[in-house]
Amino acid sequence: MTTKRILVIDNEQYIQEVAQICLETTAGWEVLTAGSGREGLLKAETEQPDAILLDVMMPDMDGLTTFEKLQANPATQHIPVILLTAKVQASDRRRYAQLGMKAAIAKPFNPLELANQIAQALGWILEK
User: Fold this and answer.
1) 3-state class (DSSP) for residue 37
2) Hey, which residues does 43 pair with through a beta bridge?
């Protein structure tokens, strides 16, 4: 089976690094990072990751706007998106699901559970 590739779009360098280290060590996945919505859109189109972890609160272009642009682009609309957000009340989760997002993971997240949460949301089986 091929290695999964995850794109983490978050303006916080620390979050990118924690997510990258955890997903690479616990799941053996390849992790790409982007520090802004604009950078994330470019990387999603050129790298074609298997999934995107997307922060909601970012300067310039927030996560929901980034998601809308991903959905509007035929080259990226098939890529499943999971939100990383501090806003995970039931009403927020319903709204995110209606928009087409696969899941929302609460920040701060448990680094050791992140791969399991992603795999569960996307129906993937962890090999490790």
Assistant:
1) helix
2) none
Question: Looking up tokens 């997307």, which residue turns up?
Answer: 54
Residue 92 corresponds to which tokens in the numbers above? 């927020």
Here the CATH number for the domain that contains residue 86 is 3.40.50.2300
DSSP alpha helix (H) spans, the chain: 13-26, 37-47, 63-72, 90-99, 114-122
Q: What is the pTM of this model?
A: 0.93
Is residue 103 helix, strand or coil? strand
pLDDT of 9 strictly over 60: yes
Which amino acid would we find at residue 45? Answer: E
- Residues 70-93 pLDDT 10s: 999 999 999 999 999 887 777 887
128 located within any domain: no
Q: What is the mean pLDDT of residues 98-115?
A: 91
